[in-house]
């Protein structure tokens, strides 16, 4: 017996769920299949706050976005079948699904493939030893199953996945001994790299793994510098004692079902993807693609692509008028377009951007070492000096993000109409509420009082580690490079529901150090 639906969605991740929700809102009857035991795809692994603006779910943590999508889908009556592996996509949009020990057949008036992507792997001597894992697997262990992947970990890959997972490993209590990449420059957002650097993790760019040591498990790793042709440079080897190696060297679209269905495919630097129009239509009528399966991007983009596809499918099948679809698609395309601007826009992949949109020199130290040097930081418009408490914004790249502008109740921070502009500090007085610090998805905002009148100043910074230091705790302040710069004492730690688990730690440091001290480390005797 073949069950029939208006829309079959393959994949219950951000793109698939968003498409099903959009279709259900328009009166369609969608069904969603996912091979996993939980819906939401990568969202429930993502404990960090999203970039973008309000329409992109900015400053909301990934797993909370997942819960929001599931709640919306449930309210609309979307049928989500889990532990259901789609094994075939055939003519007439027939789908075969393995559920338990049996195979079931379904037909859809339309089919949306939103199968996402899988982790790439790199081979080196010892790469099959237990303890060599993908960064996504580490996220699954930590954020879904609450298991530490290891104790001492080396991360290979400096894209956003490698940077984000490195930080989450530290939040889980792991020690990240180094972050390594064969590329000469950091591949992900500078703010992600900066928050890792100030925690003391060194970056080794133009380096890669020579071998993992151990017999029945990983006990160490040797890296070496590479030349411009990625050949090892003799005599540059460095060895670390580790029990885990995390690999974050990119993703590949899981496009096999589309190829099986006869969709025209193309080989791109980002993987083997279907040829699609701007609305997700493939070369086979009635078959659509959205999310990472059609090109690797952020989850925010995948959700918008899914909603566009859901709206277009609704119109194709007569559930809404063309004018309604075009208005909705135009609105969504504007939101998607803003995410594809700035230094990390698809058109800029692989390019060295030397100046910001404002004409400011990009920090080469950030790109090559993971942190903005002290003699570079003053050039950026968010880095200000004034009497009393005021924000210092160390956002130095044109990233599509503006929660800080919306968060400040006094209008102290301005980004303007262009979401990728560098934030600036206005003349409006700061009341020290800390909402900007807590709202910054890149943890790049600090509240500074440069002179409290006693030879000291204070720095308020975002803090997301356990245990949380108590008032009066003495320790050291670390600079942007993760090295100790001075003694420090915790003045206060503020937590509030509005901060969404980002604690605001205020430390007292000598006043000549307030523009250098960027992290607090407790000194345990």
Automatic annotation (TrEMBL):
Q: Give a GO molecular function annotation for the protein.
A: oxidoreductase activity
On whether Oxidoreductase is a keyword of this UniProt record, the answer is yes
> Which UniProt key words apply to this protein?
Oxidoreductase
Bilayer-crossing regions: none
Q: Which InterPro entries match?
A: 4Fe4S_Fe-S-bd (IPR017896), FAD/NAD-bd_sf (IPR036188), FAD/NAD-binding_dom (IPR023753), Metab_Enz_Cyan_OpOx_G3PDH (IPR051691)
List residues of the 4Fe-4S ferredoxin-type domain.
389-418, 421-450
Does the record carry Oxidoreductase as a key word? Answer: yes
Listed Pfam families? Pyr_redox_2 (PF07992)
Question: What's the superkingdom here?
Answer: Bacteria
The protein's name is 4Fe-4S ferredoxin-type domain-containing protein
